[in-house]
Amino acid sequence: MNWTKIIEDAIRFIEENITEELTVGRIAQEVNTSAFYFQKGFSMLCGYTVGEYVRMRRLSLAGEELTSSDIKVIDLAIKYGYDSADSFTKAFTRFHGNTPTDVRQNGASIKAFAPLHIKLTLDGGKTMEYRIEKKPAFKVMGVSKIIDYGNGYSTIPKFWDEVFASPANKIMGVYGVCLDDEIKGDQFRYMIADDYNEDLATENGYEVKEIPAHTWAVFPCKGAMPQALQSVNTQVFNEWLPASSYEIAAGFNIEFYTDEKKYALGAQDPEYYSEIWVPVKA
């Protein structure tokens, strides 16, 4: 997958349509990739979520236009996607550090946020273990939560703690499933799940999700959680995907966890084993 070209094309599309409605789904469709993986890859490679990047580019351009024209603030707000002059002024002030009035009437300073440009650098040369495995369709059951892309690495472990702190919880936590439900904005659905059991699912009102049959790239993770899995996850997006000939086949991925009771220190054991499954097509 030419991940670098996907990001370049996405940035170009954003810049050419900066005053139009820009959802993650629309941008991902334009560059012909999954919204889930596009959002995740963009934030890891660029350091911003898609929504953050679009917002900062719009406010940067609005600042330039405010100082170089006599456009009304309300017209500027509408042009760059704000419902009112008040909401625009609040966002403008947070970004630039000065209100539109201060900038226009008192010559207060503004900030510039330039478009991202992809530069080729010599990197890699590292080994990364994975295997390709076909798996039949299967069902999972569990509980889910909407997660912000920008703070997923901190929010998801807290969600696990919340679920397992509940006396009513009967989920073992065999899987962590990231679902692309085409949620608008910088969010995705994360599900803590087990293999489907009809009686337990009905009795506890668990959500049920069918995972289709796929070919998966399976990445082993060894070490204390969540650091070991998060480290491999970052490598998948920063190193493996950009260099791989495989393409993403669906808009979700799966974390597989072994039974922590088998390890002396549980999920904090240096030998603890987990996996990341990424659906692919050659």
Written overview of the protein:
With 282 residues, this protein is of the alpha+beta class. It folds into 2 domains: 3-106, Arc Repressor Mutant, subunit A (Orthogonal Bundle), CATH 1.10.10.60; 131-281, Alpha-Beta Barrel (Multidrug-efflux Transporter 1 Regulator Bmrr, Chain A), CATH 3.20.80. The protein is 41% helix and 22% strand. It is built from 10 helices and 9 strands. A hairpin with a 7-residue loop joins strand 3 and strand 4 (187-195). The protein starts with a helix and ends with a strand.
CATH superfamily of the largest domain: Regulatory factor, effector binding domain
Shape field: elongated
How does CATH name the architecture of the largest domain? Alpha-Beta Barrel
SS strand fraction: 15-25%
Secondary structure elements and pairings:
Elements: H1 3-16, H2 24-30, H3 35-46, H4 50-68, H5 73-79, H6 85-96, H7 100-106, E1 131-135, E2 138-148, H8 152-165, E3 175-179, E4 187-195, H9 198-204, E5 207-211, E6 214-222, H10 227-243, E7 247-248, E8 252-257, E9 273-281
Antiparallel strand pairs: 1-6, 2-4, 2-5, 3-4, 3-8, 6-9, 7-9, 8-9
Helix pairs in contact: 4-6, 5-6
State the gist of this model.
The protein folds into two domains: 3-106, Arc Repressor Mutant, subunit A (Orthogonal Bundle), CATH 1.10.10; 131-281, Regulatory factor, effector binding domain (Multidrug-efflux Transporter 1 Regulator Bmrr, Chain A), CATH 3.20.80.
